[in-house]
Amino acid sequence: MKIIISAGGTGGHIYPALAIANKIKEKNKDAEILYIGTTNRMEKDIVPKAGFKFIGIKIEGLKRSLNPKNIKSAFLFITAISKCKRIIKKFKPDVVIGVGGYVSAPVVYAAHKLGVKCCIHEQNSSFGITNKFASKYADKVFVSFKSLEEKMNDKKYIYTGNPCSENAIKTEAANKTKFGLLESKKLVLIVMGSLGSKTINDKMKNMLTLFNNKEYEVMFVTGKNYYDEYKKTKYTKNIKIVPYIDNMVSLLKKTDCLVSRAGASTLSEISSLNVPSILIPSPYVTENHQYKNAMDLVSRDAALILEEKDLEGDVLLRMVEKILNDDLYKNKLKRNLKSFEVKNSATMIYEEIIKLVGDKDEK
Fold this sequence. Notes:
- The chain is α/β, with parallel strands linked by helices.
- The mean pLDDT is 92.
- The protein has a seven-stranded parallel sheet with strand order 3-2-1-4-5-6-7, sandwiched between helices.
- It folds into two domains: 2-162 and 343-357, Glycogen Phosphorylase B (Rossmann fold, 3-Layer(aba) Sandwich); 169-340, Rossmann fold (3-Layer(aba) Sandwich).
- It is built from 14 helices and 13 strands.
- The protein has helices spanning 11-27, 43-49, 69-91, 104-113, 129-134, 146-152, 164-170, 198-207, 248-252, 264-273, 289-298, 315-325, 327-337, 345-357, and strands spanning 2-6, 32-38, 53-57, 95-98, 117-122, 140-143, 157-159, 187-191, 217-221, 239-242, 257-260, 277-279, 304-305.
């Protein structure tokens, strides 16, 4: 079987794409996989390191407002379609899979025009611009949220969850002592993505002092760009400040309360691991999709939400301690999270691909 996978721009698109690629290779060792991404975003480094053949194309996303740069973007899109058609004709894939980011749009469109079967995966609870466009040309659309499948009411939309969840389940739990933490104490993990958030970091400098001398431990991940700003502030020994955590999923398995953004991959991980969480959606993302993601869980009492504008005073402290100290409440959150749990997401996607294109020498 020969597959082209395309995704780019952010880890939220790239890592689900790699999860699908790895599952295909696990199920079919002879499968040939080609990854198409951008020439200037993070996938150009991540994908080759993961062991997959990579081709970069030059493309830029359209601006939402009237902007002269959209003329250049439109030209690059048309050029990218032509290049993708050449790549597809040469590689001859059985299927093309788009996993989001504007780079995947010309790939899926070109494949459709050449008569190649296409699938896409949407990580969020509502479609972004790229997948809204690509869904018109896809034979199957895999979605991470049951509510989106129900909204579309079309057999080609299939609820699979996010393929990152399967990786989360398989990841071995961390030894907390490696992070300077005690196994005997409850853990509150606060993280706003790998890069961190300036707004949250500015607020948390003083807010963290409210957690001084608590009987539980708090680990705050600043993001690499903001770590130095925290060196001047003194906190008690139950508070740990770090710039970044490698393999954070392993620590999630030992986390009693997570405070985080509401990115799709994060929500798939906390759902699969049943981690009680307080979600602070980023208000700076396209179509406010993190708020919509968060509300999908919050509306079913599976998580708490705290909007960035409301992060003041001791509100976070009170929400954290509600989860830590009220076992009935915490167990209700965990129980409701199970309704979002998809333990075999990547496997489901692989099986749907096989149904679409047939078993190509599966081993």
